[in-house]
Amino acid sequence: MELNEAQRKRLRGRAHDLHPVVMIGQHGLKPTVLEEISSALDHHQLIKIKLNVGDRDLRDEMIEQVTQYSQSQLIQRIGNVAVLYRRNPDRPDILKEAI
Q: Where is the CRM domain (predicted)?
């Protein structure tokens, strides 16, 4: 499902007070880290991840890998922090709650 700009804006507002639930460090993306991100998305639907990687291009590449693996959407990236969203059909839709 592709999100429109109003939905993205709503999700950015909800993500403002969130703290990163997963931190990706110098060892990069391991299968366990990807599984943890997927699990966090199942539970929360909207999460922040922190990428402690120095190079911007490498950060963008890692975020792309995470979104492809987890089938999530990048809502926002500011510096080392990315906000990801994936709808969980078994939980109430946070987009509808935010209205």
A: 1-97
Residue given tokens 């839709």 in the structure block = 93
DSSP assignment of the chain equals ----HHHHHHHHHHHTT---SEEE-TT---HHHHHHHHHHHHHHSEEEEEE--S-HHHHHHHHHHHHHHHT-EEEEEETTEEEEE---TTS--HHHHT-
**Which pair of structure tokens corresponds to residue 16?**
């403002």
Cα 35 off chain centre by = 13
Q: Map out the domains of the chain with their CATH numbers.
A: 5-86 (3.30.110.60)
- Residue pair 46/83 in contact by the 8 Å Cβ criterion: yes
pLDDT tens sequence across 21-43? 999 988 888 999 999 999 999 99
